Amino acid sequence: MSTNKPALLAPALLLSALAALALAGCGGNNDEVADTACAVTSASGSVVVGSGLPGDPAAPEPASGYRIGHKPVLAKNYMVVTANPLASKAGCDVLKAGGTSADAAVAVQMVLGLVEPQSSGLGGGAFMLYYDAKARTVQSYDGRETAPATATVNYLRWVDDATDQSPPLPSARTSGRSIGVPGAVRMLDLAHKDHGKLPWKDLFSPAIKHATDGFAISGRLAAAIGDPVFGARANFLRDAEATATYLNADLSAKTLGTILKVPAYAETLTTIANDGADALYSGAIAQAIVAKTAIATSAADGSAITPGKLSLADLSGYQAKKREPVCTTYRAYWVCGMPPPSSGGITVASTLGVLENFNLGPYAPTALDLEGGKPQVLGVHLVSEAERLAYADRDKYIADTDFVPLPGGTSDTLLNKSYMKSRAGLVRLSGSLGTATAGNFGPTPLGIDRTPESGTTHMTIVDRDGSVLVMTTTVESGFGSYHMTRGFILNNQLTDFSAAPTDATGAIIANRIQPGKRPRSSMAPTLVFKTAADGTKGDFVMATGSPGGSTIIQYVVKTVIGVLDWGLDAQQATSMVDFGASNNPTTNVGGEHPNVVVGTNKGASDPLVAGLLALGHTVSVSAQSSGIGTVVRVQSNGAPALQGGADPRREGLVLGDVFTP
Fold it and tell me: What is the model's pLDDT at position 34?
């Protein structure tokens, strides 16, 4: 624990301090300019994030598939990695003011909901792991959305079970049926009550300021709104508030660099800041959520929208839950992840459990550079095969365990060393499994569910006490359901359920929708610790996580292996080529990466791709869109330090205090 921890400020003084820091972030003149904590260093010196000065990483740039040249960042006492520079700045300022990782997460989420609304926000959900350095304990927090109490098993596929068995309009996602009870705010409130030090209301100041004064639309947000193929513009036309917020008066999309102000979001944040999390789950804000979910006609042309059945009782009754994390050993480490309803923790652990039976060291990337080098064929092959086996069990057995128990009632059934060794025995060095078969854990047969997932964002935070928070947060697909109220987007999280209650064989699907149930997720915030001499969890080693739908698991696995097995630094492991597989013949090799040669023949001339093809893999070199944020505890010049890496495929930024060995 650091011995130079400052005394906590009184609430009034803290508010002034955070306000001053926010002013500095917008070009204000105070001591922050001379203090390089929570700033970046450019060729001309220290630059305050959000200042608009040369070298400012918050200056809007066109969206890029990959930005080369990212280097690891070192900090002495505290660090934050998020997907947006303004969010990283808000979190870092909280840490600098004496706040905990839980305090910083509140500030980060509120800014992300404004500057990256396509990925997360007040209207979505989240999963969090928290390592309390003083107590040396790991706790998981479940803020996953829930289905309405009146949802039927056909809620997502039929307008009405009895009278209208046609699909929801315009689609399940864009109707009110996809909207679950938001959980992120309630979860943050629970974690803040457990681990926060600074007043809840003060943590909203940076986001309120940005929403009121405006911020420049970034490349990723501009593309999410206006891309001619993937942008949200056409869907926003059905929602009057989204149209007014993200489109111009002529209904064109707001573009890169446009100063966006969202006063309704500032007003909502102010209410939650002053009245607490309950303000989202009762009263005027809750009524607005229910009303928007129940809307039945398009604002643009009056066409039909199938309303959802969310009620005020659903919101007022929502509970964030503390659950036991999934912690397993991997070589000389303990790796902890989220339990169900996320499949992330179990599937990452299952992949590592299979890989533990192989020596991955000889298959480390070659031609090592800042971008993580060139993965070797057998390294990618082994990881992908292990993932196929892990996804096979995931697709069949993992769902909300409050409704459907795991085989044997425990994650150990899927993760014990004996079972992992038997699964590893199915892997061949000479060829790919293609599609793996799940383990057999009768007696009740369960169906296979490969419902696709999308969206999300991630934050990794370490405070000056050494406590660590990893949180993956989402509205599901880009801009969720496209429904907007009170300045924030409502999720489409219920489409993570299987719309059909049974698979093609007639077997019941564990991840079917049920009243009050939480949909399965792949979010995988992950913590790594050394194994102590007595076999228990020892010192903190690493924290990571990523957005990316069901491929989150692949992004996290390659990052963990990059650090633990291949000795890459935090940035190299984060930047390294994204690779892996779910349970089908296709293996992903991220073609956006500069160390992958895509060419005109779908990558077949690339040595990695050619080698995988020779082993029977079907290879996709489609661009991957991970958003990994990694912090590793290291020694630098004989002194302990935090080393951070932000994914070059997004707009992420690492910030912390100054490292002085």
Answer: 40
Distance of CA 103 to the CA centre of its chain: 18
Q: Are 385 and 427 in contact (CB under 8 A)?
A: yes
What strands, in cross-sheet order, belong to the sheet with 468-474? 321-323, 137-143, 125-132, 468-474, 457-462, 79-82, 653-656
Catalytic residue among 456, 495, 551, 587: 456
Distance CA 618, CA 656 (A): 42
At 537, list the tokens. 């969890």
From its phi and psi, is residue 231 left (phi > 0), alpha (psi between -120 and 50) or beta? Answer: beta
CB atoms within 10 A of CB 171: 14
Reported as type and span, the H/E element at residue 150 is: none
- Supply the DSSP symbol for 198: S
- Return the residue matching tokens 């025995």: 425
pLDDT one-digit tens code per residue, 130-165: 999 999 999 999 999 999 999 999 999 999 999 999
- Out of 55-69, 438-452, 459-473, pick the least confident: 438-452
> Rounded to whole angstroms, how far apart are CA atoms 542 and 544?
7
The model's confidence at residue 21, banded by pLDDT at 50, 70 and 90, is very low
Which three-class secondary structure string do you get for 587-614? EEECCCCCCCCCCCCCCCCCHHHHHHHH
Structure confidence by residue, pLDDT tens digits, 268-278: 999 999 999 99
Is residue 451 annotated as a catalytic residue, yes or no? no
pLDDT higher than 50, residue 2: no
Q: Which residue has the tokens 């480490």?
A: 333
Lookup: tokens for 287: 């009524």
Nearest C-alpha neighbor of 336 from the set 526, 473, 535? 526
Residue 62 to residues 35, 58, 216, 262: CA-CA distances in angstroms?
A: 30, 12, 12, 22
Q: What is the DSSP letter of 446?
A: B
